[in-house]
Specification:
By secondary structure, the chain is mostly beta strands. Helix content is 11%, strand content 42%. Strand 3 and strand 4 form a beta hairpin. Helix 1 crosses helix 2. It is globular, with a radius of gyration of 16 Å.
Length: 179
């Protein structure tokens, strides 16, 4: 990619259970170490990023932008936004839903810096409503080359986000509000 270039794809990822989608290297490399990082609805580790989606099963809408620089967070369009560092060993990523029978991999555009460190920003809309017809879900990933940095919560507004951030504290707060 040249300066100011980005590629965006729109995908439907099928999830059979567990409410998660995986962003993973096309080829696993045990020689690559990615820092283990978590920011509530996203968890990065070697060769894989786990993304919590708005619902337990079914089709999940994803938009993925791969860019040569930070494309900027969409703070107005999404309710929860988080970022983590991820090191790709192959320079090629796929998106896949949790499936019992068949792993359907959705190839993404090639990463601009090849095998390198990247920033992954995850935007989600519809967590409180679990992606109903009246309030459709939306998941948006942005990926660009960047030095390894700590996870960041850019925006957090939903109750499920509060739960994923700290499940024990969330459950305690439910008990306190019931009194």
């Amino acid at each position: 990619m040249h300066d100011d270039q980005q590629r965006t794809v729109r995908l439907q990822v099928e999830v059979e259970d567990c409410g998660i989608v995986y962003l993973a290297d096309e080829e696993f490399s045990k020689d690559v170490e990615s820092p283990a990082q978590s920011a509530a609805i996203i968890e990065a580790k070697t060769s894989c990023v786990t993304l919590h989606i708005t619902h337990q099963w079914g089709s999940a809408e994803f938009t993925v932008t791969v860019a040569d620089r930070d494309p900027g967070a969409d703070r107005e369009g999404y309710e929860d936004i988080v970022e983590v560092a991820y090191v790709s060993g192959s320079g090629r990523l796929v998106l896949a839903g949790f499936s019992f029978d068949e792993h359907v991999m959705h190839p993404l555009p090639a990463l601009p810096a090849g095998p390198a460190a990247y920033r992954v920003r995850y935007h989600v809309k519809g967590m409180d409503m679990e992606g109903t017809d009246e309030y459709p879900d939306d998941h948006y990933l942005q990926i660009w080359p960047a030095p390894i940095a700590d996870p960041v919560v850019v925006k957090a507004t939903t109750r499920p986000f509060e739960y994923f951030l700290d499940p024990e504290r969330f459950i305690r707060s439910l008990g306190e509000s019931a009194r």
